Amino acid sequence: MAKKVLVVDDEPLIVKGLRFSLVQDGMEVDSAEDGQEALDMAKQKEYDMILLDVMLPKLTGFEVCQSIREFSNVPIVMLTAKGDDMDKILGLEYGADDYITKPFNILEVKARLRAIMRRASMAKAAAEKREIEEGVIRYGDVVLDKNNRRLTILDVEYNLTSKEFELLTLLVNNPKKVFSRENLLKTIWGADYPGDERTVDVHVRRLREKIEPNPKEPKYVLTKWGVGYYFK
Questions:
Q1: Domain containing residue 56: CATH number
Q2: CB 3.0 to 4.6 Å from 79: which of 42, 53, 126, 156, for a disulfide?
Q3: Do 68 and 75 contact (CB within 8 A), yes or no?
Q4: Gap between the Cα atoms of 165 and 136, Å rounded
């Protein structure tokens, strides 16, 4: 899958040069010419790297970097003026991973980006492996800690019953797969359970009342009419 890069600079020639070179390396490149646009794009789309100029209209690169760090660990490389050590120091303090001074050699830029993205991929893989070993399931906003039987969504913890937790875990482990009520009943409650499929409906309703912003219009546990339930 192609790496996604956001280039933020108000100098069109710099953006054009970086875009051309990075696209030739098989990357997908978006661009923004002011700080506010860059921040909005970073919120709307997940990037593998952000190249961020310090001097920008509306919001400075420092402000953008600081704001992005409130919701993302995406690697950020600041573009600073040559010899301006204070910009480099501030960029790192605001959460940047590295800096490149202008004017720059495009080959050096690409080498630095590849190295940073490689380190970020290795760190992400290590974190995912650690979470799996620790019994943590992470899917979008939802984090299930199987060992401690804890659910958090957007960093808010929800208290679930044992069956609610098992039901949600099964659905999250199989996103978009539709489970029939009969299948859920046998899997969660066991083949010898004397109850009927309404048991599943009741637990799904209670689960939605706990975790859905609007239980009548669920965004996590959805219904496939006439078939069953699935996790989106």
A1: 3.40.50.2300
A2: 53
A3: no
A4: 13
